[in-house]
Amino acid sequence: MQLKTNNAMLLDKIDKPTLLLDKNKCLTNIRSMVQRAASAGVHLRPHFKTHQSKEIGRWFRGFGVDRIAVSSLRMAAYFASDQWTDITVAVPVNLREIGLIRELAGKIRLQLTAESLASLQFLEKNLNEPVEIMIEIDPGYHRTGLESHQTDTLDAMIGFMETSSFLRFKGLLSHAGHSYHANSPAAIMDIHHQSTDLFQQLVDRYQHRFPDMTASLGDTPTCSTAHHFPGATEIRPGNFVFYDLTQHHIGSCSKSQIAVAMACPVIASYSSRNQIVVYGGGVHFSKDRYTLPDGKTSFGEMVFLQADGTWQLPDTPIQVVSLSQEHGVIQADAQLLQQLQVGDLVGILPIHSCMTADCMKGYLGLDGQPIEMCKIYEW
Amino acid sequence: MQLKTNNAMLLDKIDKPTLLLDKNKCLTNIRSMVQRAASAGVHLRPHFKTHQSKEIGRWFRGFGVDRIAVSSLRMAAYFASDQWTDITVAVPVNLREIGLIRELAGKIRLQLTAESLASLQFLEKNLNEPVEIMIEIDPGYHRTGLESHQTDTLDAMIGFMETSSFLRFKGLLSHAGHSYHANSPAAIMDIHHQSTDLFQQLVDRYQHRFPDMTASLGDTPTCSTAHHFPGATEIRPGNFVFYDLTQHHIGSCSKSQIAVAMACPVIASYSSRNQIVVYGGGVHFSKDRYTLPDGKTSFGEMVFLQADGTWQLPDTPIQVVSLSQEHGVIQADAQLLQQLQVGDLVGILPIHSCMTADCMKGYLGLDGQPIEMCKIYEW
């Protein structure tokens, strides 16, 4: 046992799965995206669904960011309580939360996402303060949004807003989530071109009538790869704040840009099958995964934690080959088995940092300070 | 829009993804497992990692259950604070939590799981109150535990405890988690027989020296299927309290036994591809899934919610075909699309109720009362 329980170093204080956040990497990721947006002549409206943290939000504010996107009304309320006053809820509006919508509409510049006339009619009837409306366009991902040929519906929705009391047409929004199925920068750019072409046509159709309209697009893969966003006035990536192995797999970041790693205690090791088992499972990482070139499934990759909490990549990837509720199984080799003992800590890079952060509900900075996060599902 | 926001019925109060818990189904599941254990002549030590709730724990106590298993030391502390005094932490002990182990050892009858002499030596050196030790045996699942041929290690561990001041050999523990790879009751029984045979041999080896030793096994698939547990003195299933679609898929329950369903607001519907999108995604369900006979992936199945919060199964399964962070996509048909409108609520049965409960951090009873749950990752 190599436990140094009386040592005051960062790692020695960690006794359970803990999501380490390297602020320097995070700030570099933010700075780089701020610069990319500036060079492309678009606003950056970062999606805060990845980090869900007021403190990390303030790091963005330090770079001049003054508008954000979130994925739920409760997340909007959380950030509204930290002086964010221009917030897009970038998911089709949940009409059942009309009470919270009314509350937020009175406080901030709130943009709701809509894609049907019926939703707009419901909102108009039930609001007493104005809200702005982004109409969602499906760029080929086929999750949500109007298809680009549904211009009749678009016209009807915009027409309805022109005569409504509480709804203001703010612009068009799309999310090319199929960029997550790409596996190279070239494939990402193909999707980017297809989706911006579609989007541009619709923007052209309305921009003469609404010269100040917002045209919002951009996911982390395309925003990390493309330098031009034709038709767009703003980009809306989120995951880039941390990146993760999925983004690396797609080709949108290097592994060294990943800003979070889970510190996990080693609880068992098996020389007969070269496996190490850590305390760190599905309740910590979620169960996102991807298929490796050899057909095996990866749930994460091990890294070596340094005394200051930073981490070092191994020469050859060391995969997390399965996760159960609290256990993670790492496929190691004889040398690693020799090196690591029960009670040691290892780091694991997450497959999907948004999901992992949401599971953990908080971070530990490398200065030893916890970084708070939104806790939406409190009862 | 069919929203009845002024109606006081249960469903009308639900505005976001909410995990409904049907207490009657849950009590039936508990009663049935209590009876099965009694008939088999073994103690029931239910695994509370699934529900993680003091209130649900009290329902078990109402059936005379007086001992439990948990999957982390913090979960043990949570239940110890609600008068549970005999708790097995059924995961190889995390030595970094020695502080919490010391605290719990002074309060309750605590069983730790170990599988190496080094862990025992560390504990002996760092404890000042006695704890009981369960030695984990790998029944062929190959996640954790000593292999059955490692009797030298077993002997050495037991020998060490016989002369130690704070460690008491309590018994053997195994978890046949590979029963989750079964797809029929017959396949479950094959795994059950193989793993109990191995276990029985080891129990036979030690029982003459330790006639009161505990022999603990049993996962939900085998405990829902088998009626005899050769060699065992206690069974330790957990998931059965709620069951889920995975258990149905394996063959350990019917869909009507599943005691939890997520109420999700409909936020969009697409007649062009017969899909409904709900507010309810990976942050609510986790990302567990399984492959359907037709090769497609399921992330859940839709059910029809009744006004009293109970749910009805459709005639033909209606699959959740994808989950992103907050969105769930349901593959419907034209009739269902007609029937459901944006703003309505649907129910979704989870693929894996342990993970879903952990994501949600709480339940809503059908009487409208929230049911509290352990929140381990609070900062």
Q: How would you describe what is shown here?
A:
Two copies of one chain form a homodimer. Chain A has helices at residues 23-40, 54-61, 73-80, 98-105, 117-126, 151-162, 185-207, 220-225, 245-250, 282-285, 334-339, 353-360, and strands spanning 18-21, 43-44, 68-70, 86-92, 109-114, 131-137, 167-174, 214-217, 234-235, 260-270, 275-279, 290-291, 297-298, 301-305, 311-312, 320-323, 327-331, 345-349, 362-365, 370-372. Chain A is α/β, with parallel strands linked by helices and 379 residues long. The first copy, chain A, folds into two domains: 10-20 and 259-372, Lyase, Ornithine Decarboxylase, Chain A, domain 1 (Beta Barrel); 23-242, Alpha-Beta Barrel (TIM Barrel), CATH 3.20.20. The longest helix of chain A is centred in the middle third of the chain and has 23 residues, at 185-207.
